[in-house]
């Protein structure tokens, strides 16, 4: 952008209803004044009364997996394991080359995934299918031979799923790097200026290798890299490249709802099974203490209510704040603990309409405290929205619409008492404050509508006129 800066003309400032011109210079907002400011050589974007907001933040995404998922066979419509095998059989496959599918939802299927189904559908073809929540990997026999494993069903969950996902054949690094950078450009086109990358990899090294992304990136630290990260002298918040900073440490407390491995206080229906605790507290606390001592923040994955209780117990024992990622099912007594302990609830509102049927079945009688965003907000918790892409699309407006409406189809909102106001949902997607102020950073999004009072049904398709990152246009319609 030229040296004279940027002028965003005739915009509505957040939810204030105030129309103004906004000047940006040197990466900061330098003026918010009544319309009619002179251009003075600045690049001008005509807002036509559209809403100007701080740049949107996706606080939880898996960028390599999202970029790859955009090129996988979609399986979200599969009604059974047999149906999923039929769908993948109709895809274009290159003999001997790994065929990948994504986004299947097995929680309510009448049958179970099995390698035999894939072997019959595509004999001899290596096939890898990823569940929508990324906690289940379903392989054909030929795909298992690719990674030198054997298994009676070819279905791997939790730690085995994560480890095998990392070893599957991939395109060249040059190709996947290009895919990931294209994904950040697509995110910028939806108003995103910051993404926390929760990829299970050496995110710092990967991002330092790539060209400059179209968004800021928080490089989250995988558990297996904690000691190395500390030894490299890296601390959460440290800059590690252009638009790159070190993120928190990601630790799994439990699994997921759809895999039925979310760790709960109560049993799953018709069983004595209550999910999987992946990190017992007595084993976890020394790891967390080491991270805190090394300047690494904490992000604990917890989906079931018992896992959330234990995650909050960990923060209380440590005497530090941090993040709980997902917080999908909560015990009533844990709601006020988030605010009291200074723990952010990093939630993904688009999961709620996706998982409402699974929750009604597997968490029957408890869904009044599932995806309980209004209750968390009312208890004083800080909410920060993410997509968990590729579990949901990397589009904050999808999550905002779900948080406000509690639905994404023709059905009424699910537990509408847990819906948030639009202003609260937008604030949870903009780092906590939906207002643009003079002197603030010039990470901004200009929406092509005045969103005040906009019906939830229109939020998912909002036009984005411009996205500004550090004063530079990363997207312009």
UniProtKB/TrEMBL annotation:
Q: Which domain of life is it from?
A: Bacteria
- Gene Ontology molecular-function annotations: hydrolase activity, acting on carbon-nitrogen (but not peptide) bonds
Q: Which residues form a coiled coil?
A: none
Q: Which InterPro entries match?
A: Amidohydro_3, Metal-dep_hydrolase_composite, Metal_Hydrolase
Which Pfam families does the record match to this protein?
Amidohydro_3 (PF07969)
Which residues does the UniProt record annotate as the domain Amidohydrolase?
A: 43-473
Q: Which SUPFAM superfamilies does the UniProt entry name for this protein?
A: Composite domain of metallo-dependent hydrolases, Metallo-dependent hydrolases
Name of the protein in its database record: Amidohydrolase 3 domain-containing protein
């Amino acid at each position: 952008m030229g040296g004279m800066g940027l002028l965003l003309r005739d915009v509505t400032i957040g939810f204030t209803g105030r129309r103004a011109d906004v000047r940006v210079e040197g990466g900061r907002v330098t003026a918010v004044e009544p319309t009619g400011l002179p251009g003075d050589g600045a690049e001008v974007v005509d807002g036509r009364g559209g809403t100007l907001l701080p740049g949107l933040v996706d606080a939880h995404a898996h960028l390599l997996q999202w970029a790859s998922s955009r090129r996988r066979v979609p399986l979200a419509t599969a009604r059974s394991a047999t149906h999923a095998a039929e769908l993948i059989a109709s895809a274009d496959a290159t003999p001997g080359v790994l065929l990948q599918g994504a986004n299947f939802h097995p929680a309510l299927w009448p049958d179970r995934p099995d390698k035999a189904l894939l072997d019959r559908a595509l004999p001899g073809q290596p096939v890898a299918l990823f569940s929508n929540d990324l906690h289940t990997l379903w392989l054909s026999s030929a795909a298992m031979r690719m990674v030198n494993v054997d298994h009676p069903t070819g279905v791997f969950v939790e730690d085995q799923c994560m480890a095998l996902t990392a070893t599957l054949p991939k395109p060249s690094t040059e190709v996947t790097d290009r895919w990931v950078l294209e994904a950040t450009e697509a995110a910028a086109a939806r108003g995103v200026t910051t993404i926390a990358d929760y990829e299970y990899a050496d995110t710092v090294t990967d991002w330092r290798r790539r060209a400059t992304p179209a968004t800021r990136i928080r490089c989250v630290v995988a558990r297996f890299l904690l000691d190395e990260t500390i030894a490299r002298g890296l601390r959460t918040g440290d800059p590690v490249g252009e638009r790159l900073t070190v993120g928190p440490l990601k630790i799994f407390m439990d699994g997921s709802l759809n895999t039925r491995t979310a760790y709960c206080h109560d049993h799953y229906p018709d069983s004595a099974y209550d999910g999987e605790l992946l990190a017992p507290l007595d084993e976890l606390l020394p790891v967390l203490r080491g991270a805190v001592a090394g300047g690494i923040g904490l992000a604990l994955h917890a989906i079931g209510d018992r896992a959330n209780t234990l995650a909050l117990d960990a923060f209380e024992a440590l005497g530090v704040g941090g993040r709980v990622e997902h917080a999908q099912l909560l015990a009533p007594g844990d709601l006020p603990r988030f605010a009291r302990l200074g723990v952010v609830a990093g939630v993904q509102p688009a999961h709620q309409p996706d998982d409402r049927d699974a929750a009604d079945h597997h968490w029957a009688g408890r869904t009044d405290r599932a995806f309980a965003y209004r209750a968390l907000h009312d208890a004083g918790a800080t909410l920060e929205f993410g997509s968990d892409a590729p579990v949901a699309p990397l589009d904050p407006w999808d999550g905002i619409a779900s948080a406000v409406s509690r639905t994404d189809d023709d059905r009424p909102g699910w537990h509408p008492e847990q819906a948030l106001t639009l202003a609260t949902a937008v604030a949870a997607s903009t780092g906590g404050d939906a207002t643009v102020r003079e002197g603030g950073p010039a990470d901004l999004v200009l929406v092509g509508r005045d969103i005040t009072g906009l019906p939830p049904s229109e939020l998912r398709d909002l036009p984005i006129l411009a996205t500004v990152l550090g004063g530079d246009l990363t997207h312009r319609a």
